[in-house]
Write a structure and sequence with these properties.
The structure is a single chain. The protein has 2 domains: 112 residues, Archaeosine Trna-guanine Transglycosylase, Chain: A, domain 4 (Roll), CATH 2.30.130; 105 residues, Methane Monooxygenase Hydroxylase, Chain G, domain 1. The protein contains 7 helices and 6 strands. A 5-stranded mixed beta barrel has the order 1-3-4-5-6. The radius of gyration is 18 Å and the shape is globular.
Length: 233
């Protein structure tokens, strides 16, 4: 069963707690390590573990003094949670789906939001194939310039445990070629290679696959151009 089929069978709650973090994005399928130490988020974690094990990670809106989560965020499932002697916790959150934050239902002791899941429509077109080919070319070029490609922990399905440093460009591109879901490719590459918070949030907020791939290509080309400018031969 692929990831999208899996979440169809997962009951997505309509009301979920939100953790607002500066420069943070949670993509579907991505794994995000978190250190929970604020009292309100410790309470949130305990409540989540006693219910559906889910909460939202939202990027703080830029230029806002007050805590203001972005309108589109990532809903995550708690995969691992380890309590520390000082009452804090370390956990790994796996992205489940994009969500739109519809309405704030509660602010204290932690924020609860009403949400609406966002899913891209199925795509199969010559344009999508062309854009995917361009993304693969840019991934190869970006890695050749020295950027590692950190695969998510659940990505390697070959049975061979490899870290990102041991994988060749050919192996990485071959892996991307085997992913027939353009939606998944766009998010995986964005999560692995885009360092800028604004760029990552733009990708997260772009639900339709074709414009998402176009944004990704634009951002990768800009990063490659900047890298070449900063590191002339």
């Amino acid at each position: 069963m692929d990831f999208h089929a899996y979440i169809v069978f997962m009951e997505i709650p309509h009301e979920v707690a939100v953790m607002t973090l500066a420069n943070a994005t949670l993509f579907p399928q991505a794994l995000l390590p978190l250190h929970i130490f604020e009292p309100r988020y410790r309470r949130m974690l305990a409540d989540a573990l006693n219910s559906h094990r889910m909460f939202i990670v939202a990027m703080q809106k830029p230029n806002c003094v007050r805590e203001t989560p972005s309108a589109v965020a990532g809903l995550g499932l708690i995969r691992v949670a380890v309590d520390n002697p000082d009452g804090t916790s370390h956990l790994i959150l796996q992205g489940i789906t994009r969500v739109e934050i519809v309405k704030t239902l509660r602010y204290k002791p932690y924020r609860i939001q009403q949400i609406r899941p966002l899913q891209a429509a199925p795509t199969d077109s010559v344009m999508i194939d062309t854009l995917l080919a361009k993304v693969r070319d840019l991934v190869s070029e970006r890695i050749e310039l020295g950027s590692p490609f950190p695969f998510p922990l659940n990505a390697a399905k070959s049975g061979k445990k490899k870290n990102s440093g041991s994988m060749t460009i050919k192996e990485i591109v071959s892996y991307l070629d085997k992913l027939h879901d353009a939606d998944q490719v766009a998010d995986l590459v964005s999560c692995a290679l885009l360092g800028g918070a604004v760029e990552r949030q733009t990708i997260l907020e772009t639900v339709d696959v074709e414009p998402r791939l176009k944004h990704l290509i634009h951002f990768l080309m800009a990063e490659i151009k900047q890298h070449r400018k900063d590191n002339p031969q």
